């Protein structure tokens, strides 16, 4: 199936009251496991990589093109609808590197930017992206995050419906990431409280799909209430690396018997393939929570 435009995926999700997962990858195995999970669950999915979890120097010296090509190739071979996202670029320049590289959607991490730069750079990215049929996710408001195991809410601010309306009108973004109590990079016991009423108010103020970042820390019941309130895309990162990393550690044990089989063989003994199976299982579980399971059949 060819790449499906992100707005098309999200409008089907909105009409049918589910959310499409963006399961952030970090290598070929994790990208493949994500697509395998989507196929096994008959679910649409968004695949890609993100600038918050990867060296910008590496991304800007070929990384964007390498992963964009792999993601686009996986999408083209897949039997389910897939969009590819270059997530959370650090600047207009870095995000523009995703255009023509295999991603059909891009996003900048703009938290903390001043309003003029935010509006101008986002509008410029929308113009450049739409010219080559790439969608843009914008964000307004700033998430708290877990840093060194502790909640850091110093720069955090909720998305106001008025600011969201102005931002969408001025920039023309295709979907909007909101800060509604969701928290980035939750690794421990912190439980965020997602403000469902605020999601509804923002949804009434704007005419684009809404996105919830920080999917790792949001409990399943809150996630489902957020979807019912109007969220149609959910980003998950940290939790996936936990699942994969722990599976990898368990598979590796203390010695490697046959390195040729253990690494890159794609046979039964390939430890990364085995960790990928654990990763796909967790992604399928999340697809059930998001309601996207079975939604690939239209
Ligand atoms: P988590 O790592 O908290 O799941 O957040 C992922 C994310 O929002 C990427 O954009």
Report on this model:
With 298 residues, this protein is of the alpha/beta class. It has one domain: TIM Barrel. It has 11 helices and 11 strands. It has helices at 6-15, 28-41, 56-77, 92-96, 115-130, 161-171, 196-205, 220-229, 238-252, 259-262, 271-290; strands at 20-24, 45-50, 82-89, 105-108, 135-140, 144-147, 150-152, 175-178, 183-184, 210-212, 231-236. The strands form 2 sheets. Strands 1-2-3-4-5-8-10-11 form an 8-stranded parallel barrel, surrounded by 9 helices. It has a 3-stranded mixed sheet with strand order 7-6-9, with no helix packed on it. Helix 2 (28-41) packs parallel to helix 3 (56-77) and helix 9 runs antiparallel to helix 11 (271-290). The longest helix is centred in the first third of the chain and has 22 residues, at 56-77. The structure holds 1,3-dihydroxyacetonephosphate. 1,3-dihydroxyacetonephosphate binds at residues 24, 50, 87-88, 184-186, 213-217, 235-239. Keywords: Metal-binding, Zinc.
CATH class: Alpha Beta
Percent in helix: 40-55%
Count the DSSP helices.
Answer: 11
Gyration radius (Cα, Å) is: 18 Å
Question: What gap, in angstroms, lies between the N and C termini?
Answer: 13 Å
Architecture blueprint of SSEs:
Layout: H1 6-15, E1 20-24, H2 28-41, E2 45-50, H3 56-77, E3 82-89, H4 92-96, E4 105-108, H5 115-130, E5 135-140, E6 144-147, E7 150-152, H6 161-171, E8 175-178, E9 183-184, H7 196-205, E10 210-212, H8 220-229, E11 231-236, H9 238-252, H10 259-262, H11 271-290
Parallel strand pairs: 1-2, 1-11, 2-3, 3-4, 4-5, 5-8, 6-9, 8-10, 10-11
Antiparallel strand pairs: 6-7
Helix pairs in contact: 2-3, 2-11, 6-7, 7-8, 9-11
Bound molecules: 1,3-dihydroxyacetonephosphate (13P).
1,3-dihydroxyacetonephosphate binds next to strand 3, strand 11 and helix 9.
